[in-house]
What does this fold into?
Amino acid sequence: MNNLLKKKLLTHLIEPLRQHSLVTLAQHELERRIISDEIPAGTKLNEADIAAALGVSRGPVREAFRALGQAGLVRVEKNRGVFVREVSLTEASDFYEVRAALEGLIGKLAAQRIVADEIAQLRVIVKKMHAGSRSRKADTYFALNVEFHDLLARAARNSVLLSSYRNVVNQLDLYRRATISHSADNIPLSTKEHEAIVDAIEAGDQVRAGELLTAHVLASRARLRAALAPASQQTPAKT
Amino acid sequence: MNNLLKKKLLTHLIEPLRQHSLVTLAQHELERRIISDEIPAGTKLNEADIAAALGVSRGPVREAFRALGQAGLVRVEKNRGVFVREVSLTEASDFYEVRAALEGLIGKLAAQRIVADEIAQLRVIVKKMHAGSRSRKADTYFALNVEFHDLLARAARNSVLLSSYRNVVNQLDLYRRATISHSADNIPLSTKEHEAIVDAIEAGDQVRAGELLTAHVLASRARLRAALAPASQQTPAKT
DNA sequence: ATTTTGTAAATTGTTTACAATCTACAACAA
DNA sequence: TTGTTGTAGATTGTAAACAATTTACAAAAT
It folds into this structure.
């Protein structure tokens, strides 16, 4: 049988099995559960329990733990165990600062490299944000927001930037999920910012797109801070 | 015996043993060898061989591989093995773009938060760069350069930024080590840029420090590109 | 009462053994 | 020659067994 033909025919069926070992399965499943807050921050992850739950032995689970540790989603303590990472307020602030810088670059690059279809997709997302804003569905807005920014990050066409961005956002989610942040976010205002960002991107205005995205992230941080320090005196922003 | 006293007395002796498992030992040792180019890019890392070399079994080595994979230093292929990551020219360019953005933020924050002692240390490093520049020691310059930028990254006092920065730089080293880049770097010119950066930081000029650092990184990228495309037509810069 | 000490159980760290897959290469066929 | 097939060896994937450490808690001492 022709080798090339065989390969073409079966590749798409075999690929999932070829690529995914028990380690990556465990890793992705745990990552999903952590980011979705199914396993909340601070939780101790028991090797044997997780191995049993996933139907594998401890080896692959341990390897997945190491990867998640490097990704910043869990904290590994020798002889003590691994814990879903907890992100403090000051640390979250650090994350926002870095994210703002990365989003600035995303805006600049996306304004240069985005294609028409992606702009259309962004418009669809923003439209859904409008539709959902009055029905007060913070969770769906949160998901749309993630989709919006991830699409933008991909449109920047810089794989290093994309993975750095996702790394930061994933860790930031550890904090946002633990708070009321995404319900405290001013949805109508945030949606307006998204619209302005798409406009700048579509116009190919690198500088403006970068500035708007950076400002958007810093505004999110400010909204989060305001929501967390309700009646007390605000600490003056340092930046 | 008083518990607090005992803890204080022995902690510093025990700490290294408490903290480091065979996994982290293997991880750090491999990381060192990869970044120092002792193990060059593209090399296949054999589990059994490395385990034997380090005097441990395959388990800890496999776990270290997963962490290094997440850090971007190795590529893990199921049933094939792990390989020291190779960074292409276009990928390196992506790394420089991200690094430039991160260094911009580092400059801004360091200008606000650096302390006198750190400025003094920066001056010492720059002085050493001057001294060594005429003796053509590219390797020592390379080391000083790493020290300079890492100190600056620490002075920014943002742990997220620091680890993102180090992550990018480590991976970038995979590329720079594989090329003649650091000998092609125009050392006197680069040193002048470092001086200007320290001046701006010391003056507390956030904007200028950020701009100079971003420009410094992009200039490094340009120098690298120029060195790699010697006589042929230069591809016009996209940014 | 508070602290210390000791012991058993639970949990993690590491090694070893076995199964599955890939690689190299020889033998064979077209 | 060129390509296929098959087998042996090497290598990786997974599981299980064993060792070391921590944790929980009861008993004893101050």
Notes: Residues 1, 3, 21-23, 56-60, 78-81 of chain B lie near DNA strand C (CB under 10 Å from a C1'). The beta strands of chain B are 44-45, 74-77, 81-84. Chain B touches chain A through 42 residues (CB under 8 Å). The longest strand of chain B covers residues 74-77.
